[in-house]
Design goal:
- The structure holds two protein chains of two kinds.
- Chain A is of the alpha+beta class.
- Chain A has two helices and ten strands; from the N terminus they run H-E-E-E-E-E-E-E-E-E-E-H.
- In chain A, strands 1, 2, 3, 4, 5 and 6 form a six-stranded antiparallel beta sheet that branches.
- In chain A, a hairpin with a 7-residue loop joins strand 1 and strand 2.
- Chain A is elongated and about 90 Å long.
- Chain A starts with a helix and ends in a 5-residue tail after the last helix.
- Chain B is mainly beta.
- Among the domains of chain B are: 63 residues, no CATH class; 36 residues.
- Chain B contains six helices and 63 strands.
- A five-stranded mixed beta sheet of chain B has the order 53-54-55-56-60, with no helix packed on it. A four-stranded antiparallel beta sheet of chain B has the order 1-63-62-61, with no helix packed on it.
- In chain B, helix 2 runs antiparallel to helix 3.
- The longest helix of chain B has 31 residues.
- The relative contact order of chain B is 0.07.
- Classes of the chains: A alpha+beta, B mainly beta.
- Chains A and B meet through strand 6, strand 7, strand 8 and strand 10 of A and strand 46, strand 51, strand 52, strand 55 and strand 56 of B.
- Chain A: Keywords: Signal.
- Chain A: It comes from Neurospora tetrasperma (strain FGSC 2508 / ATCC MYA-4615 / P0657).
- Chain A: This is Cyclin-dependent protein kinase regulator pho80.
Chain lengths: 206, 972
């Protein structure tokens, strides 16, 4: 069954590989010091557009403020990452946050590190390298959405050296010098203006 | 060529003389270099005459680190060296020389090469498919040319090739696909013998295939012995070659009997070995003219003895000629032949004795005169000369000692000794000379007693100190003179102490052979002490997981991967001494690395198990520490340590088909002078200075052309701060990263088409990335006003998620680089250099950070404001400028790692490189702005002052007299 599902998803991926695709990943949290099952935190959708500038901003499509908050004394550490509930394993790198991030007055920000050129991965997660979380103080003066935000940090294209312009050679192996424009090509507009002026100017109408 | 001229012109602009690495008058003054070969191997070391008519012979060796070299036997100076494999090796290889030939033949791995014996130039280099198992020079051939026989193991088949001695061309090739294990090749005047092992492991038979030397056709095949009597291939001790009657000798696995057979004969003879023999060596001449005599050297746990055997050429019967007396203690034998005469040299820990092979009369005996207490020679080679017209002999022996030295003993005197044990270094660290603890203790004592007692104590102490006054006064003139003339004070009689500049540091070096060396970086790298820590069994190497120096106590801790721990304590005192405590290696390797954790009593190393679990955690470890370890699936894990317990906090899992190739972190001492960079327009870009960051370089092999992915991790939270992907990277070439301050750099080999598609490029590259708090100047982002910062906690100011802004630039290098290290200075004010080893140029280069600057303007000249900032126009290529090579003309080979440490003066960083050679120097990336250079002429200064003083003294009475006369002179 699982195989079928993954086959189907693989087909889907193949079909939509060329175009932009919205991928949704489940984010789970788990206390570092306990072996309890990770609990659902949020679901983040992001756009895998080839051109990141045209991509739709990532959205947190579901968010459950952690219940464990009640018995946290503010200092417990939590592990956060993409979790495969069926396989019961983390399918991305995990990072650690303190439970204070979920405190009052902080807007949750989920940071996904994404490498869209990655073709291999497990579950539905091919791209998400790791997940981080930050609670950021809500600006009381601003009337904005205080809801959970998602930030996608994409793997940058490695910088390539900026080469000098190549030397163009003619078939004879000589260096091609771009031909200088003739005086006529360069200053035809001066002549045109002079002509227009001299033609249109006319005499003094005597 | 268009590019170079354009380049050099650009470089003239780009690299002002400020980047010059070494001035001529500093060579040999600030730097030191041990030009080394490695420990000579028994089978690949010999005396050989490089010119047929010359009397003088040279000492040739192929060492256990893969260096082939020639040494002048009278001075111990290296004449030439060749690094055969391009990098450090684990021993092996073959080296032979034909009698009277001016070339040497060597083989390593899959290649056979020949070298000019005089100057070490390559004659030819041939690569083959199989692995070379043996190499021999044919002394006699049909065309008066000496050829090379090379035995290969090619995919389970045995291949013997005869290569022309002139150009390495294959004369004939013999191939056998019997599945036997090829062992050695041998030859006498007309036949070639291939010796292989037939059968299965533990029960082999020796098989000798006889070939015609002229055509390589198989003539016969013999299997020696009826039953499988060779247990292991190490039991075959010797297959003689180029002798009138080459022999093959092997023992049973309990070393009770020696079995010898003359090659080409089916019969074998057995000789009983002395009781309790643990190992056997055979020494036989390698010249056809020599008498077919050989010596069997048997070692027991308490001593050694030797027996000499003769082979009857007519009947091929081997008879025992005589036996040398058993001597307790270690000893080494070597053979020397002079025409038909064969001499055996015996080196024991007390004397050097020579015998003739014909009788046991002692031809010469010299007691060993060594400076060291006891000399233990492990193996050696020797050359015996009969003095013309007399009956006396002279002998010189080059021997490897148990302290990893190579010494030459001439008639009992040690003429030279080379510290070849410094090669194969696996770890090193700088350590401060420990200050005398007494003064600190007394001062503390005085502080705690009542004022009167303290005063009396102090006066007493000062009176006691008066005894050092005469020596101090006596030294003043010499010190003054040396200061004026610029000569160095000899440090022999002076107690080892720190100097005001901080150049005087010690280097503790550990080698894979289990030796510890202490070098004085302030005194040309002089070896102050050496000590064997472990007696490692053959084939085992000392692998070091972590090394750590405590500067206040002078204790260096070395954690090995094999459950071993070594402490080197440098004892303060007038004579230098070290104390080494070690817990020997045991069991199988169980440590992947070592983690440095802060404890109540200072930082300490803790071993990290193969599964990533820290071991031996104690309760005195300070809380809130995270160690980064490799997990069993090669992932990275952050391990939080609290109360002696460890919890895996985060995991960094790479995508499938990616693997980590290198990890770099900021050095422990990484002083940052300024938190921002002032730009030309007086705005400031603030540096991202998170101390808990790590650069991980991974190779992505999911695509046909692999790519390199560089991740920047926060080690406390495990968050991926930044990542970038470089396409078209060769994963088999060296990929390495270094990190300092707010930037990191990685080097790799790339071959790709540029993303704009216009051009493609191929070459070694270096990418450098700067990290800033935000993209914009004068903006510190959301954390701008925060007093402190936690990677884990929330952020108390509204804004965006704080992530570093990365500015990168890539350059093409004109040569590959490895062993990256960043210079360190005390305050971090001095600009930095990226130090790297040039494996192809054999030097250490310092690339200024000014050149590796991501903000260099591309495609235009810098504006006035940018020029003010020190930015120079971007040029895609970085030429390795000879002026920036710190090793200047020295040929430094096989550097595996470079370490740097700050000196007391801000301008200077101490540098030490190890691997095969050992090199050390001082680097001043922004010049010596705080020290008077050697060029400062103190003589002129003092001369001028003296001249002015003299002038004043002469002129002032004259002026005074004139003034008085003027006053008294009555106006007329």
């Amino acid at each position: 069954m699982r195989l079928l599902a993954s086959l189907a998803s693989a087909l889907l991926v193949a079909a939509t590989a060329a175009t932009a695709q919205v991928i949704t990943v489940p984010i789970y949290i788990q206390p570092v010091n306990s072996s309890s099952v990770p609990s659902f935190l949020a679901e983040v959708s992001y756009d895998t557009a080839q051109d990141p500038s045209s991509a739709v901003a990532p959205v947190v499509s579901a968010y459950e403020a952690p219940e464990i908050l009640d018995d946290l004394r503010g200092h417990e550490l939590l592990r956060i990452g993409v979790y495969d509930k069926a396989e019961k394993k983390w399918v991305s790198s995990t990072s650690v946050i303190s439970a204070e991030n979920f405190g009052k007055g902080y807007a949750p920000h989920i940071v996904l590190s994404v490498d869209e050129s990655n073709q291999e991965g497990s579950y539905d997660n091919r791209h998400v390298l790791g997940v981080a979380f930050k609670g950021i103080r809500i600006d009381a003066g601003q009337t904005r959405d205080f809801g959970p935000q998602a930030v996608v940090v994409r793997t940058a294209q490695g910088k390539q050296p900026e080469l000098n312009k190549p030397v163009v050679l003619s078939p004879e192996g000589k260096q091609v010098v771009p031909q200088e424009k003739t005086l006529l090509q360069k200053y035809w507009w001066v002549i045109a203006i002079v002509m227009v002026l001299s033609l249109g100017g006319g005499g003094d109408g005597k | 060529m268009h590019l170079p001229t354009q380049l050099s012109a650009l470089l003239l602009v780009a690299l002002p003389s400020a980047v010059r690495a070494v001035f001529q008058d500093e060579v040999g003054h600030i730097d030191y270099h041990y030009e080394l070969l490695g420990l000579p191997q028994r089978e690949t070391t010999f005396f050989h005459k490089p010119r047929r008519d010359d009397k003088a012979s040279l000492l040739y060796t192929l060492s256990d680190v893969g260096v082939l070299g020639a040494v002048n036997p009278s001075s111990g100076a290296i004449l030439w060296r060749q690094l055969l494999n391009g990098t450090i090796t684990d021993g092996g290889g073959f080296l032979r020389a034909g009698e009277g030939q001016n070339w040497l033949a060597s083989a390593y791995g899959q290649s056979v090469h020949a070298w000019d014996a005089v100057n070490g130039r390559n004659k030819f280099w041939m690569d083959f498919a199989g692995e070379v198992k043996d190499l021999e020079v044919m002394e006699m051939t049909e065309n008066n040319r000496k050829d090379i026989l090379a035995l290969f193991d090619e995919n389970e088949s045995t291949v013997l090739r005869r290569l022309s001695g002139n150009d390495g061309r294959v004369v004939w090739e013999y191939m056998e696909t019997s599945g036997d294990v090829p062992l050695q090749v041998s030859t006498n005047v007309e036949k070639v013998f291939v010796i292989s092992l037939r059968g299965s492991a533990g029960a082999y038979n020796l098989k000798v295939t006889i070939l015609d030397a002229l055509s390589g056709k198989r003539e016969d095949e013999l299997v020696l012995g009826t039953k499988a009597d060779v247990h292991d291939k190490d039991d075959v001790i010797l297959v003689g070659a180029n002798s009138a009657a080459p022999i093959i000798a092997w023992t049973d696995d309990t070393r009770q009997q020696l079995r010898v057979s003359v090659l080409g004969q089916k019969t074998r003879q057995e000789f009983a070995l002395p009781a309790d023999t643990i190992s056997v060596e055979i020494h036989a001449p390698h010249i056809v003219q020599s008498q077919p005599h050989f010596l069997v050297h048997s070692k027991t746990s308490t001593g050694h003895t030797a027996e000499v055997y003769h082979v009857n050429l007519r009947t091929n019967v081997i008879t025992k000629a005589y036996q040398l007396p058993f001597t307790s203690g270690p000893g080494a034998f070597s053979t020397s032949s002079n025409g038909a005469n064969v001499y055996f040299t015996r080196i024991t820990d007390e004397e050097l004795v020579i015998f003739s092979s014909t009788s046991d009369t002692v031809l010469g005996r010299w007691p060993l005169k060594t400076t060291e207490s006891r000399l233990v020679a492990l193996h050696g080679v020797s050359e015996v000369v009969k003095k013309a017209g007399t009956d006396s002999y002279a002998v010189r022996s080059a021997a490897v000692t148990d302290t990893d030295e190579w010494i030459l003993i001439r008639n009992g005197d040690v003429v030279w000794s080379r510290p070849e044990g410094l090669t194969g270094a696996v770890a090193a660290t700088f350590v401060e000379i420990p200050e005398s603890e007494n003064l600190a203790k007394t001062l503390e004592q005085e502080a705690h007693s009542n004022p009167l007692e303290a005063y009396i104590h102090r006066v007493k102490r000062h009176l006691e100190d008066l005894q050092y006054l005469p020596t101090y006064l006596k030294n003043i003139p010499t010190r003054l003179m040396s200061s004026i003339l610029g000569t160095e004070v000899s440090s022999h009689d002076v107690k080892l102490a720190r100097d005001t500049f901080g150049f005087h540091k010690l280097v503790v070096l550990a080698t894979r052979r289990g030796m510890i060396y202490v070098l004085d970086a302030g005194d040309h790298g002089k070896i102050l002490a050496s000590k064997r820590v472990f007696d490692l069994p053959t084939g085992q190497k000392w692998a070091v997981a972590g090394i750590k120096a405590d500067d206040s106590t002078g204790i260096v801790t070395i954690l090995g991967t094999n459950n071993d721990e070594t402490t080197v304590k440098i004892l303060p005192g007038t004579s230098f001494n070290i104390e080494v405590l070690s817990k020997g290696p045991e069991g199988s390797p169980a440590t992947q690395s070592a983690a440095l954790l802060n404890t109540v009593s200072g930082p300490r190393l803790f071993p990290v198990g193969l599964d990533g679990e820290l071991q031996g955690l104690t309760s005195d470890i300070l809380p809130n520490q995270v160690a980064v370890v490799r997990g069993s699936d090669k992932e990275l894990k952050g391990v939080a340590i609290a109360d002696g317990k460890q919890t895996v906090s985060w995991t960094f899992v790479l995508p499938k088909f990616q693997r980590i190739v290198d990890i770099a972190a900021r050095p422990p001492h990484d002083a940052v002078a300024s938190i921002g960079r002032v730009l030309g327009d007086r705005t400031v870009k603030y540096k991202y200075l998170n101390p808990n960051t790590l650069v991980v370089a991974a190779v992505d092999e999911s695509t046909k052309i692999p790519s390199l992915v560089i991740y920047l991790l926060d080690t406390v939270s495990g968050q991926i701060l930044a990542s970038s992907k470089h396409e078209g990277v060769d994963p088999n070439k060296h990929i390495e990263c270094a990190m300092a301050e707010n930037w990191f750099t990685c080097t790799y080999f790339g071959q790709y088409r540029l993303r704009d598609g216009a051009q493609s490029l191929k070459g070694y590259q270096i990418v450098v990335s700067d990290l800033y708090e935000t993209d914009k100047p004068n903006d510190r982002g959301v954390l701008g006003d925060a007093e402190n910062f936690s990677s884990l906690g929330p952020i108390d100011a509204p804004g965006d998620v704080p992530l570093p802004s990365v500015v990168s630039q890539t350059f093409i290098l004109s040569a590959p680089i490895s062993a990256l290290e960043v210079t360190q200075t005390r305050q971090g004010i001095t600009s930095r250099q990226v130090l790297a080893y040039l494996p192809e140029n054999h030097g250490i280069v310092g690339i200024p950070r000014m050149v590796l600057e991501p903000r260099r303007p591309v495609g235009r000249d810098p504006t006035a404001a940018e020029a003010e900032e020190g930015l120079i126009k971007y040029h895609p290529a970085i030429e390795i400028d000879p002026k920036s090579v710190h090793t200047h003309e020295r040929d430094v080979i096989g550097v595996q790692k470079i370490i740097a440490a700050p000196a007391v003066v801000e301008s200077t960083s101490l540098v030490f490189a190890y691997g095969i050679d050992v090199f050390g120097s001082r680097v001043a990336p922004s010049f010596l702005f705080d020290i008077l250079g050697k060029g400062f002429n103190k003589v002129t200064l003092i001369g001028t002052v003296l001249a002015i003083t003299a002038g004043v003294m002469i002129l002032s009475p004259m002026v005074r007299r004139k003034q008085i006369n003027a006053l008294w002179g009555a106006p007329m």
